[in-house]
């Protein structure tokens, strides 16, 4: 089993955390089969209903972006319909084992730009509202900042929905934003493990969680999380550090894997975390991304 979490303050998890280990969601010592964490590449779930071939439209978008980068005049701009066709609804990347004991956020990767941005859709977990939630994000994997976000207004009270439905209703808006940020959609996005090889060498992403006991409820929560990436030839660097100062219900974080940019020496690190449910179990499992350059700022110890 990979070393998902290193607990510094306590050697034994509390009874609540221990009870969660066999449930299939994320915990401090979750099994490999539950997390899907390994060094084997994982791909997006197939979309059996999707028959449209948008390869030609994608190629036209790429050529237009290349002309713009080279400074060539663009006498024949792409039609709005071509741009719309290039950006079809993404497929889900399943990075967890389904379990009725947990409420999961779903993740749909779209693609990279050549300047370090990554686009994706998330369907946030509906814990108790009985509503459908949707967010389209474009995130810089250089600064980790969200540079664009389109969110379904929860005040609209949409009870049911899907990515396909949201895409059908808003495809022109989504396509325009993705094209503006020069996102190139990829059909074969793979989730690599925490240990992976590239032309630059061998890399390993590690996470360390410092735990504390919640003073009100008495169970273990994550106080501080540090994530490092180590290169066989370059050394190590820290890519993420966070300390919880407010209301804390995070029971555990692990690095699920990385998504490699096809255009740069850069990865998006997929971090999965488990949060205690609003009124206790079922707990919520969600994810977030951290960018990592595979060339710069490494230090040998």
Concise description?
This protein has 301 residues and is of the alpha+beta class. 17% of the residues lie in helices and 35% in strands.
How would you describe this protein?
It is a single chain. With 301 residues, the chain is of the alpha+beta class. Helix 4 packs across helix 5. The protein has 5 helices and 15 strands. It folds into 2 domains: 15-41 and 191-293, no CATH class; 54-187, no CATH class. Strand 5 (135-140) and strand 6 form a beta hairpin. The strands form 4 sheets. It has a 5-stranded antiparallel β-sheet with strand order 6-5-4-3-7. The chain has a 4-stranded mixed β-sheet with strand order 2-15-14-13, with no helix packed on it. It is 17% helix and 35% strand. The protein has helices at 15-20, 32-35, 55-70, 80-86, 163-180; strands at residues 42-43, 102-104, 106-112, 117-123, 135-140, 146-151, 184-185, 190-191, 195-198, 201-213, 220-231, 235-243, 250-260, 266-275, 283-293.
Keywords for this entry:
301 residues; alpha+beta; 2 domains; 5-stranded antiparallel β-sheet; 5 helices; flat
